[in-house]
C-alpha cells in the first residue's frame, strides 16, 4: 500500500516537473537575457550622459533608478512566466513604494530638487550665489543638498527642495563681478577732475575689466558733501583684493592732485557678501 502511494507521488512529481520545467527554463532564459540587456542599457545611458557632460552625482542617481526599475519589471515578467500572480505582486510593490514615498516625502522633494539643479545647472561649483537669503561660494552640489561657503568662512547646507523652488541670484553667471565703492568728498570739489583722477586709477589696474566699462558718477549730495559712486568690474577671484586696493589708491591719487582727502569710502551694501 505504501509502495502504491510512493509510486503515485513520483508520477505526480514527474508530471508536475514536465509541466513546470519549460516555464522555469523560459524564466531563467528571460532573466539572463534581460540582465544582459539592462547592463548594456546602463552603459549606453552612461555614454549618453557623459557626452552631455551631466554631473557625476546625477549620472549615478539616474543609472541606479533606471537599473533598479528595469530589474523590478524583469523579475515581475519572469514571475508571470512561472505562472505566479503578477498583479498581486505588482500591487504589493506599489503599496510598499507608496508607503516609503509618504515616509520620505521631504527627502524625495530634496531629491527631485537636486535632479532639477543638476539637469538645468542654474549654478555650478565655484559660483557666487544668493539662495534663501544666504550669499556664498558654491562648494558642492549633492543630490539632496547644496553646500555654500559664506564670506565669513561658515558652511551653509541648503536642502535642494527649497533651493530649486526659491529665487537664485547667480553673481558669477556673467563671468565677472562689480565692485561698488562710495567715495564721499566735499561738494566744492570739481567733479570732472575727481572723475578723471579716479578713472586714471582704474585704468592703471590690470585686474579691472575694460568691458563693461567702469563707471564713476555722483549718487547724491549730502549737505556739504557729494557721494561719488565708483563701479569697476573684475573677475570673481579679484573682487576683495581690488576692493581693498582701490580705497588706498583712490585716496592717494586725490591727495596727489591737490584735493582734500575723501571723508569716507565704503562698500555698497548689496555687494557685502
Can you put this structure into words, describing what you see?
It holds the Pfam family MS_channel_1st_1. The protein has three domains: 2-103, Helix Hairpins; 123-170, SH3 type barrels; 177-271, 2-Layer Sandwich (Alpha-Beta Plaits), CATH 3.30.70.100. The chain is of the alpha+beta class. It starts with a helix and ends in a 6-residue tail after the last strand. The strands form three sheets. Strands 4-3-2-1-5 form a five-stranded antiparallel beta sheet. Strands 8-9-7-11 form a four-stranded antiparallel beta sheet, with helices on one face. It has seven helices and eleven strands. The chain has helices at residues 2-51, 56-81, 86-103, 105-120, 160-165, 191-204, 239-256, and strands spanning 128-131, 134-141, 145-150, 155-159, 168-170, 177-178, 181-186, 215-222, 225-231, 233-234, 264-267. α1 packs antiparallel against α2 (56-81) and α6 (191-204) crosses α7.
Indicate the mean pLDDT: 79
What is the global morphology? Answer: rod-shaped
Uncertain parts: 268-273
Q: State the secondary-structure class.
A: alpha+beta
Indicate the radius of gyration in whole angstroms.
34 Å
Précis, in short:
By secondary structure, the chain is an alpha+beta fold. 54% of the residues lie in helices and 20% in strands.
Characteristic terms for this protein:
273 residues, alpha+beta, Helix Hairpins, SH3 type barrels, Alpha-Beta Plaits, 3 domains, 5-stranded antiparallel beta sheet, 4-stranded antiparallel beta sheet, 7 helices, 20% strand, rod-shaped, disordered C terminus, MscS_channel_2nd, membrane, cell membrane
Amino acid at each position: 500500500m505504501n509502495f502504491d502511494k510512493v509510486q503515485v507521488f513520483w508520477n505526480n512529481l514527474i508530471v508536475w516537473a514536465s509541466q513546470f520545467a519549460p516555464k522555469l527554463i523560459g524564466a531563467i532564459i528571460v532573466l539572463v537575457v534581460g540582465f544582459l540587456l539592462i547592463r548594456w542599457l546602463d552603459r549606453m545611458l552612461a555614454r549618453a550622459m557623459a557626452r552631455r557632460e551631466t554631473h557625476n552625482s546625477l549620472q549615478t542617481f539616474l543609472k541606479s533608478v533606471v537599473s533598479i526599475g528595469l530589474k523590478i519589471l524583469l523579475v515581475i515578467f519572469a514571475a508571470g512566466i512561472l505562472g505566479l500572480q503578477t498583479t498581486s505582486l505588482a500591487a504589493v510593490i506599489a503599496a510598499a513604494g507608496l508607503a516609503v514615498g509618504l515616509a520620505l516625502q521631504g527627502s524625495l522633494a530634496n531629491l527631485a530638487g537636486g535632479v532639477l539643479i543638476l539637469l538645468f545647472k542654474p549654478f555650478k561649483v565655484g559660483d557666487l550665489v544668493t539662495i534663501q537669503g544666504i550669499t556664498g561660494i558654491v562648494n558642492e552640489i549633492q543630490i539632496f543638498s547644496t553646500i555654500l561657503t559664506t564670506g565669513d568662512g561658515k558652511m551653509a547646507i541648503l536642502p535642494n527642495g527649497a533651493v530649486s523652488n526659491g529665487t537664485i541670484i547667480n553673481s558669477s553667471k556673467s563671468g565677472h563681478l562689480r565692485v561698488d565703492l562710495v567715495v564721499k568728498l566735499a561738494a566744492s570739489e570739481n567733479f570732472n577732475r575727481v572723475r578723471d583722477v579716479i578713472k586714471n586709477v582704474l585704468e592703471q589696474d590690470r585686474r579691472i575689466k575694460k568691458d563693461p566699462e567702469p563707471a564713476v558718477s555722483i549718487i547724491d549730495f549730502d549737505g556739504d558733501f557729494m557721494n561719488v559712486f565708483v563701479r569697476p568690474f573684475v573677475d570673481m577671484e579679484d573682487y576683495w583684493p581690488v576692493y581693498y586696493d582701490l580705497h588706498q589708491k583712490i585716496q592717494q591719487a586725490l591727495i596727489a592732485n591737490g584735493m582734500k582727502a575723501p571723508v569716507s569710502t565704503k562698500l555698497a551694501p548689496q555687494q557685502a557678501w
